[in-house]
């Protein structure tokens, strides 16, 4: 499990570009950001603004691109990055990224009624059916994955608190709880499925914080 956590933490290198002087970006808040016209409208927009690249089409390259960005306090999406692309499908990555940059403002996320900067990840699947990008995860599947991610991140928050306050026994106990629950949750997902990918993408910032604390404790 420790190896799994280390591998997940390594995948967070892409987040290092965010300025240390900026206000922190949260992974989860009480009210998450949303697309004003609704989820269906969001994916309809992507569908209409993505063209399957000819090179990838000719080579039958398919897959899911995960685009991560920050929804600012005023709803403006910024800091677009590809957190997981398609092997050999740089054109797919480019199309997904460019389409997301055209989305316009979101309804911002908030905590206790106060707008916050929040990470937002969109999984966009490219499949050679009608030469368009298609979403494969249902709203329920995404909700299930995000609920699991929230649970894991809450444990990491408790670990952070215990570490900060010097409660070493509680810290060790919570670290064990984190690893046990990660193992348990892993059994719920089909390896390599879009749902599993969404779960891991969602907990990456939390796992990074956990790994930092483990390293500091050595």
What is the secondary structure topology, with strand pairs?
Blueprint: H1 2-10, H2 39-49, H3 54-58, E1 63-71, E2 77-84, H4 90-100, E3 109-111, E4 114-116, E5 118-127, E6 132-134, H5 139-165, H6 168-186, H7 194-217
Oligomer: single chain
**Gyration radius, to the nearest Å?**
18 Å
What composes the largest sheet?
A: 4 strands, antiparallel
CATH fold name of the largest domain, please?
TolA/TonB C-terminal domain
Helicity, in percent?
A: 40-55%
Beta-strand proportion: 15-25%
Structural class: alpha+beta
| Succession of helices and strands | HHHEEHEEEEHHH
Form type: globular
Distance between the termini: 17 Å
CATH arch. level architecture of the largest domain: 2-Layer Sandwich
Number of helices: 7
Count of DSSP strands:
6
Assigned CATH superfamily of the largest domain? TonB
Number of domains: 2
Provide the residue-averaged pLDDT. 79
Weakly predicted, low-confidence segments: 1-21, 130-135
CATH class assignment of the largest domain = Alpha Beta
């Amino acid at each position: 499990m420790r190896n799994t956590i280390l591998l997940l933490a390594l995948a967070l290198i892409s987040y290092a570009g965010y300025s240390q002087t900026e206000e922190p970006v949260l992974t989860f808040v009480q009210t998450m950001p949303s697309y004003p016209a609704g989820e269906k409208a969001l994916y309809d927009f992507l569908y209409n603004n993505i063209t399957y690249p000819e090179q990838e089409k000719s080579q039958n390259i398919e897959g899911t691109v995960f685009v991560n960005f920050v929804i600012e306090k005023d709803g403006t999406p910024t800091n677009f990055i590809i957190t997981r692309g398609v092997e050999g499908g740089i054109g797919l990555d480019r199309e997904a990224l460019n389409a997301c940059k055209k989305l316009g403002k979101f309804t911002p996320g908030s905590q206790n009624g106060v707008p916050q900067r929040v990470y937002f990840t969109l999984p966009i699947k490219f499949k050679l059916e009608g030469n368009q990008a298609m979403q494969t995860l249902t709203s329920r599947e995404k909700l299930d994955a995000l609920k699991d991610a929230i649970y894991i991140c809450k444990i990491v928050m408790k670990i952070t608190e215990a570490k900060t306050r010097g409660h070493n026994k509680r810290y060790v106990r919570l670290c064990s709880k984190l690893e046990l629950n990660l193992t348990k949750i892993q059994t719920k997902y089909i390896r390599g499925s879009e749902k599993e990918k969404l779960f891991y993408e969602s907990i990456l910032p939390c796992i990074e914080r956990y790994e930092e604390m483990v390293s500091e404790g050595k």
